[in-house]
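ligand=FE2/S2 (inorganic) cluster
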Amino acid sequence: MEQVQVVFPQFDRTIVARRGDNLLALMQQHAILLEADCGGVACCQRCRVLINDEPQLACMTNLMTDVSVVVPSAQPEEDFLI
Ligand code: FES
């Protein structure tokens, strides 16, 4: 099983994922809150993140390489649980 590292610099957190994992699902599994009103079918545009400084939809992103992810709307202390 190949692994990739997903770095969330604003939360000072790195998550190891399986290559091909969906980013939105990974974030939900690790309690990094992100609005996903359409349930991950690319309709609402609420799950926008910056992946290596490029805007992307988390629900449409399968992780194939190590990446850095920034959640523009997040306030670390409010939107990151644990
Ligand atoms: S969850 Fe709605 S566009 Fe990604």
